[in-house]
Description:
heterodimer; A: alpha/beta; Rossmann fold; 2 domains; 9-stranded mixed β-sheet; globular; disordered C terminus; B: alpha/beta; 5-stranded parallel β-sheet; 28% helix
Amino acid sequence: MHIVTCIKQVPDTKVIKMNPKTNTMDRSSAPAILNPYDAHAVEEAVRLKKRYGGFVSVLTMGPPPAVKAIKTCIELGADEGYMITDRAFAGADTLATSYALTQAIHKIAKQKPVDLIICGKMTIDGDTGQVGPGIARRLDIPPLTSVIKVVEINREEGYVIVHRKREDGYEVVQSTLPCLMAVEKEINEVSFASLPNMIRAARYEPHIWSVDDLENVDRSQLGLKGSPTIVSKVWAPPKPSEGEIISGTPEEQVERLIQLVLEKTDRLASKEVAQ
Amino acid sequence: MNFEDHKGIWIYIEEHDGQIAPVSLELLGAGRQLADKRGTDLAGVLIGYQVRHLVDQLFEYGADCVYVYDQPIFQHYRTEPYLAAMLDCCQTYKPEVILYGATSEGKDLASAVATDLPTGLTADTTLLDIEEDTGLLLASRPAFGGNIMATILCKKYRPQMATVRPKVMKALRPEPGRKGKIIERQIGLNEEEIRTKVLEIVKENTKKVRLDEAEIIVAGGKGLGSKEGFQLIHQLADVLGAAVGASRDVVEAGWIDYPHQVGQTGVTVTPKIYFAIGISGAIQHVVGMKNSELIIAINKDPNAPIFQNCHYGIVGDAFEIVPLLIDGFKKALAHPNKTKSVEEVHHA
């Protein structure tokens, strides 16, 4: 079974700093990491490989330093890494990104047919979750989003059974293979890298393709040109009015706070009675 | 593409167990404003099985028109048949804008529709506006973990599409007896052609955190120092009968599970009272709780951004303040009459 996992290197948005004067992000302040959701996707691919046998490829689109994210995936147990990198891909929104990744998957599949594609739920820099389903549509395979468990894969009979998260529980879904899954964090816990994998990762050189290495590419669908959406304006979120700071000794502060809360809950209670 | 042909604001209506999802009613409220500004109609697209009776409610909440696809094949949400219905509707009636709830279902469907049409799709919008003369949708959303807001446009394609965060927009007050136009359609898809099947639906409502429904939430952040320190949050929540929330750092540190995460990448909540304890107040968190009725912040750092996003704040050490709060609430709730009246406190 050949599993392709799509991954992305992202700035760690938790620690990103803003330049208060220009109101722009200081990207150099944020370390580049493997998108946390993608770590779960790779972990799941490696676990499925252990369960059913097979081969795990990872694929990313990004600038040359994103090789580091591929190496992280090799540490997690992926077998092969592919990166597409080219100025032509720059500025892509989710539609153009899913197009470029799909073209790369076609090329990977020519070398080794693909049974399953796994993506993380979303990236922490884009926060959209739109690329995975987009790839599935372009490949004309079923997209299974919100996957929290892979119950069974039956490659001979060509189906997979998964649990998909719902707001009120989960649903058990059967789909034909090949298909694409977008996985939630709760699907697994990411293992620590083993020493042999770390050594392998340190020496590993991924396949690096430019746009010219891909076949049948419609350049008008790539990058900024191929992106229907544009960011027109970036601004600081509106500042709400400041709260009242309760002063005094800790005992006084707490006493006042308790009064405020009780007042609020009393009002809730009396409103309910009035109704 | 001829933009003149594309008219109307559409809302994808999400339905579960015969009930319209609250986010769809919220979007009808938001869509009504856009439609009025643009001088066009507001329509709902309702896909499901035995759902036709829901149209009256959609009219009451602001829809002028409802497109209905009511067939057994739509009994459970699945991407492929729902996509087929949306494509049929879009290609036949050509809307200018389509809004979906940013729920797992809404995002799944919108992503597929955007790829197939194709058109642009903005995710997790929290602010919407439309240009009166051009019909250009201004879809704004928090970006980069909520550190900034970005306004996204789709200038060259129609329809313009966005998913919208639940609990951000406001539903209109329903107008009983309000009527509109019903357009019923069918798609010619056989069950055998659909590649996915829902085998079972398992509901897990027992004792699960329903943060989005809690009246009081006590949320803790990295300021609690450790998983052990975070127990204070559980203790205060127990005393108040409240749900426990957490910032993203805390969830990533493994102090508590993901369903407790409040914020951009977690749950959006609107309780009556929200305690933010040891939470610095990164915008990623704030966007998920800022519509709470009463926000109380406790933090050691007087410059923590959370103090710009609360109604009342205490600058102090959580390990000192929270135990006092726990004791205080225990006493107050055990002997409700012995607490001082509000007046006395104000005079003190």
